[in-house]
Amino acid sequence: MNNLLKVSNLKKSYEPSLLKVNVLHGIDLEIKKGTWNTLLGSSGCGKSTLLHLIAGLDRPSSGEIFFEGQEITRYNAKSLAEYRRDQIGIVFQFFNLFSALSVEENLLIPLMLKKQNYTQSKKEITQLLDQLEMRPLLKRQVHDLSGGERQRIAFCRALLAKPKLLLADEPTGSLDQKSGQSVIQLMRYAQRELKTTVFMVTHDPRLAAISDQVLHMQDGRFVTPCLS
Length: 228
What we know:
Blueprint: E1 3-14, E2 21-32, E3 36-40, H1 47-54, E4 62-67, E5 70-71, H2 77-86, E6 88-91, H3 103-113, H4 118-131, H5 147-160, E7 165-169, H6 177-193, E8 197-202, E9 213-218, E10 221-222
Parallel strand pairs: 3-8, 3-9, 6-7, 7-8
Antiparallel strand pairs: 1-2, 1-4, 4-5, 9-10
Helix pairs in contact: 3-4, 3-5, 5-6
């Protein structure tokens, strides 16, 4: 099985004042195609920073990130935007949907960015929601949805772009147990049926049981967890 993603000696620091803050300390990581990967760690340990660097939303201080053998850390802003549009899907904890728009309008956005035919786009949206038994939400306004429904729609929006890699930052962090479970089932659908590689950042150790690879981060480094 080939690597989809490889991270080599990745470091990230910030200098908001005279004091330099080191966030990541030489991260090495390999993610294989079609796998579910979970990164565990407490708040502030650097998990989200790593995910943002992989997504090309921020640049490392040093080190390299390779996606399918291409070094994205050398990409310019235009190439990074195309990488995010064509190769990856990103889902955050707080949905990032347009609340004034309908579900259908939100789902059309990634397909419009790819300049896909409008009729074909609507067909693909309907087919996906039918498969996931979410068709009744299609014409609803986002501001009328529950938190769990919004997160599921956020995942659908990411999946419509047919990403090779799905990045999820604390996707169940703001949800109750039932809603969180429905989101996990949706991610599992993406991995099994769409062959999407999953990289999930969370602080919930219960999610490790469903993963092919579990990583533990502490103070910007991968660590071996203590067993008790």
